[in-house]
């Protein structure tokens, strides 16, 4: 059975940094490596929005609001992906979800205090 667990969320002051990791289990290499990996976030009362994604070839895509501040990366050997978040703003406060193909994690809270 496939599982995704996010780690690294928490409380940080505006201007600070956090690194989120998505740790997976149950994926075999031949299934994991071709998948697009992503991070979404959701503010209460709003829809989940794409934050960043990375394809199997390493092509990345970012929401305009995080370009230049966030970096997504993948580690196929460890079957995980990360989101480095720098220069955090209060508007980055949300629950962040990792996605592997069509599988979702449970989410981790990121709170940025101003």
Pick out its properties:
mainly beta; seven-stranded mixed β-sheet; globular; about 110 residues; 1 helix; four-stranded antiparallel β-sheet
Main sheet record = 7 strands, mixed
Provide a count of the helices. Answer: 1
- Overall mean pLDDT: 96
Quote the beta fraction. over 45%
Q: Give the tally of β-strands.
A: 11
Poorly predicted ranges (pLDDT <50, ≥5 residues)? none
Secondary structure: helix percent: under 10%
H/E element order: EEEHEEEEEEEE
CA(first)-CA(last) distance: 40 Å
Please identify the structural class as seen in this structure.
mainly beta
Radius of gyration: 13 Å
Which term fits the overall shape?
A: globular
Please sum up the structure shown:
With 114 residues, the protein is mainly beta.
